[in-house]
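Weekly puzzle thread! Below is a chain. First person to post its structure in token form gets bragging rights.
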Amino acid sequence: MNLRITISDKSRLSLLIGLKALAVLLLAAGLALGLLAGQAFEARGPLTRPLILQGIAVILFVIGFLLARGRLPSDERCTELDLSASHITLLGRTVPRRWIELFLLAMVMAVAALARTVDLANTPYGLWFDEADLGLAARRAMADPQFLSIFSRGYSDFPAIFFYVNFMTVFLRVFGEDSVGVRSMFATAGILSVLGFYLLARYLFGTRVALVVAFLLATSRWHINFSRIGMPSIFVVLFEVFALYFVFRGLKFEKRRDFVWAGLAIGLSLYGYYSSVLIPVLALLLIGHKAFFERWRPTLHRLQCVVVLLATIAIVCSPIIWYAKSHPEVFMQRPSTVLIFNGKTPQQSVAAVLESTKKHLLMFNYAGDNNGRHNLPGAPMLDLITSTLAILGLGYSIFRLNRSAYFIAVVFFLAMLAPGIFSLDFEAPQANRDMGVVTAVYLFVAIALFQVFRLGRWALGRRFALVGSAVLVVVAAYVGYVNLNMYFNRQMSDFAVWASFSIGETLAARIMAAEGADKNVYVSPFLSNQPTLRFLAPNVKTTTFQPQDALPFRDQLDRDTILLLDPSYEHVLPMVKSLYPDAEIRAETGPQNRAALWYVSVPAAQANAILGLDGRYYDGLEFEGQPVLEQTNRAISFDWRQAPLPRPFSAVWSGSLLVPAYDTYTLGLESTEWARLFIDGQSIVETQGGYAEQSVKLAKGLHSIEVRAKVSQDGSLKMTWSTGKTPRDVVPSNMLYVSRVPNNGVIGYYYPNDNFSGSPAYAQIDRTVAFNFHVFPLPRPYSIEWYGKIQAPETGTYRFGSESIDYSSIYIDGQLVVDNKMLNRYLDGSIPLAAGWHDLRVRFMNRSDYSHVHVYWTLPGGQRELLPWDRLRAEAPLTQSSPAIAPAVPPVAAATVVQPTSIGQWGSAGIGNGQFDRPRDLIIDASDRLYVLDYGNQRIQKFSLAGEFLSAWGGRGSGDGRFQDLTALALGPDGSIYALDGDDGIQQFDADGKLRRRLDLQRLVTYHPRGLAVDGQGNIFVVDTGRNRVLKLDPNGVLMTSWGASGSGQGLFLEPSGVAVDRGGMVYVADSVNNRIQKFDAEGRFLREWTMPTEAGGLNGPRLSVDAQGMLYATSTNGQLFVFSPDGEPKIDIDATNGGSVHVDSPRGIAVDRQGLLYLAESGANRIRKLAVQGP
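Winning reply:
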């Protein structure tokens, strides 16, 4: 009897030990596979493998607990045991548990505080526009308590922004009116949210887990980032953790004060970021879940508690609720402008939401937010260990949805992802709008750790608590180090991050604050009146810099002058150097040594050194021989009784006259003897003695001037001017400049209409044609015509081009070279020129926002550059309102414009066979089969050239033969079909869609590649659009070479979109943002480039195709199609715009069959068009 009992006990004991071992093994396997899956996600390869690994990891993790189900102590019991011990034996001494807990919590909070406050003024370095805007509002609120009431709007589109402004005034008074003062409020919110999360996690999972997870949150790179910048989303985390904590406490202890505190947190949250509107709904869901699943049955007292919660919320947020109800259009202005559905059809909206959901679900461990203010662009939002634990915790929570803690974590996770998912899809994923999800993510981490401790203590006994805690401390310390190192060293050293924080404005403001108090400060138009400058340097007065207005400096010349320019004004620096050779010029740079600001300092002595005219004095009255005296005279105002040399003598004064405004000037000479005045080489006034004058209309700016006089007796000489508004007076010294001050440029005539008609409103001499009109020269619409001469340094073929909003055109020697009617796109043309000076005319018309115009030239064998000011000369009749307009002639070497003939089309919107959703690429094989990339449906469809559907394969997914981001097709030399699936790699199929192999691109770290081509040897060319480069792979997918980087020079790219290879191995790349095609040899050596108009880049950029004769075909989104010779000579401009008989809608892919017929993928019309083109 006893023996049987003993055997039975042993069997049960063995079974229990085996069960524990198996549970621990499954748990460990789940953790290990989760880490492997995380590594696979971070490798940015195909998603199939990491998703499978992750799924298995979650299943094993959950099964481990299922095996122990019924034997483990309950969650509540584990938490109570963790909290119940009043004393802990430590190194042989008994210590109150509370002391240790407080000490460890203090350590966690110290880490949280340091991570959010250390070097807060400089990390991040720049003070972003919105941060400065809030600081300015707070400063005004400090000075005027009536400023910015609850219902004010206009600051960052948040009608309740007063919440931040009023609280920020306290921090500005304590920490100072600078970056630290602005950011300290948000840093404080971040620190307090760590404390609130600790209280929440402690209540749910006990002290041990709470301390560890609070430490992980304290060192979270995601949380730190938004705690260190003035963005209100961090308040979502602060209020939601305290709201959840007090709601949970209220449900357990049923004390009204907990519901009051919860209502206060929820009510205040509604004054914050828009996603906070979900918090009260989620709180009520928690109460409902508790009542339904955990028998929190309604009693009178409980109903009173809920009423107290709702009443507190209503009281606290009643002002903003009233405002939202009274002004819904204002309150909803911001969210309505960022909705994902804007401008989309229902079908497009569904596709956009699905794609956005995918990106947001993958942002934690695969590819995070690309905005440099929100993240290290593209890096996962979480580290490997945190993301692994969070996913395991999520899986376990789904398994335990009947328990409130797990239910609310899952619901919070889904709800707080929604603001990002349903906002602008091109911004996805959005870490800022989804900041509220951080609480749910770290609750999942706490859940995973809590369950590990729960099972470990059951399986391994008390020893696990000590060993497990030690291991957890080491792991937490490692995770903290990884996050802190990545944020402070990698993220803050990344140029994209550095540049996204209004860096030019911040650099300028700090220089102004340090040096500008007693100096003249000029800033480029982009910097002018920026909030960052006004907040960080409030007492420094600035003047907006335009070269034609400011150079040479003429005001307050008793003070040094500082010039602060954004990089777009780099072309001004040679002008400054020519005027002031000893000026200090330096670039303020950041990571990668890129210039973010140009600093110029001109001492007052240098500014004064160029005032006046160069005087040359000759012996005798005939201006003959060498000058006997040379000196600078500040003004033409002499008393010859104090002559500089014995009489008789003659003198010539030359230099530049600065005309301050477009007006009619009466220029006069008052002389005892003969004197003459020349302006721009023309004789204006001559006197034989006495006073003579002449009225002439002068453009604003620098004009060449020369004065000649003969002196044989005592007397005087004065040069005077006057206008209808100013009396006659001697021309002052700050309007006269020595000869080395250049007066190069072109005369611009500014018309108050869009057709260059009538008299100009004014005229001025502009140094070059390069303007971003932050301050409009005239009310819209207006037009400008620049006229002058340009010097060709050598004989050859020159290219001239323009980029503008709205229209611009360029004439050389009366010949129309460029007629650019494309908004914000570069267009150029060529013309042969002999060495020497040539007539130049530029016309520009503006009706639209973001007005600007830039004119370039390219010398023979040179690179594109802005028209150089030192090769321009302003020439126009002085008394003429504007020069005569030369007749327009056709551009040189223009393509023959032809109208295509449509001979067939097929397709419609849909998912069926022969239907399309945004087709984007085409190829034709040797058997005359047409393959269509059906982008929206993520598949390939095969047709005959007559449009008969033959087969289809693919579909959205991550397995073999499925696609995540199918963007390009190419035909191999053996007839196989290559399909580029974004960053996931390349899949090769036979002609019937059977997969042959996959080529992995993850090791090459591509970013949204969009172009694909295969040469005759099977080598593969990939256009890596996001990284602005071309990759050449051998037939096995091994990298052979690569070329390109971001830029506009030869061999550089900006969003290249298409690639084609001809039979000779020459490579053609569509460089979309640079509006050109570049040609390379097979090894990537640059050969030539030529212009091709485009209106889109990247995914929607031009596609290329080469026919059997080597002719290059290219699409353009405006409906035009282009055909070029292999050397870039334009042959045919196929006009398929609205003005032609055939209109194509958003052509993307293009292919040519053996008969020369064109096939177009019309993405906008969801069809394939077949065209016949009769060329020249």
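Puzzle host: Confirmed. Bonus trivia for everyone else. The chain has six domains: 14-67, 125-328+338-497, 519-607, 611-737, 746-874, 896-1173.
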